[in-house]
Amino acid sequence: MNKSYVLGKNKTPFNLDEFPKIASGEKVGILFTGDIETTLIALIAKELYGIDNVVFVLIAFEEFLQFKNDEDKLNFLKEYFDQAVKKLGGTHQYILSNTVKKNRNMTVEAKRLILQQYPQLKFILSGHNKIHEQCMTMLKDSKWSEGKITNDRLNPYLETNKNKYPELYNYVFKQQGKLFGVSKYIGFEQYEIDYETNTRPFKKLTQSEIIDLYDALGYTSQLYQTSSCDVSMGNCGICESCARRKAVFKDSTVSDLTNYSVN
Q1: Cα angle vertex 224, ends 223, 228, to 5°?
Q2: In angstroms, rounded to a whole number, what is the distance separating the alpha carbons of residues 76 and 246?
Q3: Other beta carbons within 10 Å of 119
Q4: Which of 47, 142, 188, 254 has its CA 20 to 30 Å from the CA of residue 220?
């Protein structure tokens, strides 16, 4: 595995030094979902640290489950993640807690539970690529973070300043994405941001360039097995997330050979 790569149509540089160094006794943690980003993070981490030093975490608070109070579907979700992690040679760790109903701060509760079991854990986070970086910058630039602009004015602001945030503009208006931090998923976004011990290795890459990194590393077969779907554990082909998956493939240099169940 080389350290340096030049990716995609924009020839974006990437170096594996973006992944953290760990000392003896330390491990890395991945909030694993089986999607494009977390799967690649897991594949690289396996090579860099050895699978025994990678902790796979599934957060299964009710607030994160699409099908609430449905034990059968929760069991199916757990089985799916187990299979995905076993393919990597790892072991999945489940963090399940009902105390979140009493303590509404899910970030604090999840962090306490995980770091209690793994006190020397360095989290490698997904979902924090160039899109996320530009979104956080725009929220600050627009004064949204200071309460000086309302949510309904964010999209017009982005349209006016599209040259300043080109990848974010493409994500929101072409790929039907949502602004991080102001969507219905604000709890999940903030939950990932708030860990004290974390690394964001893809912060300089778009998701299309992450797909190109799969190709550069020789992981394209694993790429086609990832799931981006809102409605199933595969890829339906018609939901919003599958539509974004198709769009990022088109902006990459890799052919989309995903097996979509509908089209």
Answers
A1: 85
A2: 26
A3: 10
A4: 188
